[in-house]
Structure formats: structure tokens, C-alpha cells
Specification:
- This protein is an alpha+beta fold.
- The chain has one domain (about 25-135): Beta Barrel (OB fold (Dihydrolipoamide Acetyltransferase, E2P)), CATH 2.40.50.
- Helix content is about 30%, strand content about 30%.
- It contains three helices and eight strands; from the N terminus they run αβββββαββαβ.
- The protein has helices at about 5-25, 75-90, 125-130; strands at about 25, 30-40, 45-50, 55-60, 65, 95-105, 110-115, 135.
- The strands form two sheets. It has a five-stranded mixed β-barrel with strand order 2-3-4-7-6. Strands 5-8 form a two-stranded antiparallel sheet.
- The longest helix is centred in the N-terminal third of the chain and has 20 residues, at about 5-25.
- It is globular and about 45 Å long.
- The chain starts with a helix and ends in a 10-residue tail after the last strand.
Length: about 140
């Protein structure tokens, strides 16, 4: 049993380090950003000020929602996607947003973040309230067709 103790301690330390590393992969924010482009109802491109004098251009997927896709298989989804994008555009009329709880992930070069309008209102809530998007937890998407 005593010969296993160092291995158990080392494994525990490595596991603890891995958990700490994962926690560091999240940027709490807030990060103020100017919206450059709106792709659809759940993805925007922003110019984010990460520290004074330094900005980065990045695509952001809004956490907690799934919107219809512009490049969908069926005409109904494409039409719904355009409506959702236009609604998001109206919500971001000021052109500035606040990003929090930012993390990388499976979103093909995008970051995932909580996004708030200049007014402080949560985009996820406002978009769900509109009925143009669905709640999304990162699992498999349901078809809009």
C-alpha cells in the first residue's frame, strides 16, 4: 500500500492541475466589444478590447440558444434564419455588446459567451423571449425543417 501512495499523490496533483487548467480556459469578463457582423440569430463577429490598446476580431456564439441556419437544407429554415438575424440586428442596434463567461470549444473557431446588449439586457433571454430561437445546451441540434 505504501508503494502506491506516491502514485496516488502524483495522480491527485495531476488531476488537480488539469481541473485548474480547465478553469483558466474561461475568461470571466466582462469584455466590451463592437459588433462587426451578424451571421445569424446566434453568431456574431466582434472587435473585442481585451486590454487597453489591444483589440481582437473574433466570432462569438451566443450561449444557451440555437437559431435556424442561413445555409439550411430547406427554405423554411433559411427564411426563419433571416428573420432571427434581423431581430438580433435590431437588439444590437447600438453596435456594442458585453461578453462574459467566455470560453473556447467545439464551435469551429468561435468562442462561446454570454452576450449582453449595451443596455445590460441578456441576449439569450431576449432572443428566447422572441420565439425565434430555441434553448440549446450544446448537445445535438434539432432540425428546423
Amino acid at each position: 500500500m505504501t508503494s502506491r501512495l506516491p502514485l496516488i499523490v502524483i495522480f491527485g496533483l495531476l488531476f488537480s492541475y488539469g481541473v485548474q487548467a480547465k478553469k483558466r480556459e474561461v475568461i470571466a469578463g466582462p469584455v466590451v466589444a463592437r459588433v462587426v457582423k451578424i451571421y445569424d440569430g446566434d453568431t456574431i463577429e466582434v472587435l473585442a478590447q481585451v486590454w487597453p490598446g489591444t483589440q481582437i476580431n473574433v466570432r462569438v456564439r451566443i450561449r444557451g440558444i440555437d437559431a435556424p441556419e442561413i445555409r439550411a437544407k430547406c427554405a423554411n429554415e433559411r427564411k426563419a434564419a433571416i428573420i432571427a438575424r434581423e431581430h438580433l440586428s435590431r437588439l444590437i442596434a447600438g453596435g456594442r455588446v458585453r461578453l462574459t463567461n467566455i470560453r473556447g470549444g467545439k464551435y469551429f473557431g468561435r468562442v462561446l459567451a454570454d452576450v449582453a446588449a449595451q443596455s445590460g439586457r441578456d441576449m439569450e433571454f431576449m432572443l428566447l423571449e422572441s420565439g425565434l430561437v430555441r434553448p440549446y445546451n450544446g448537445k445535438r441540434r434539432r432540425s428546423w425543417c
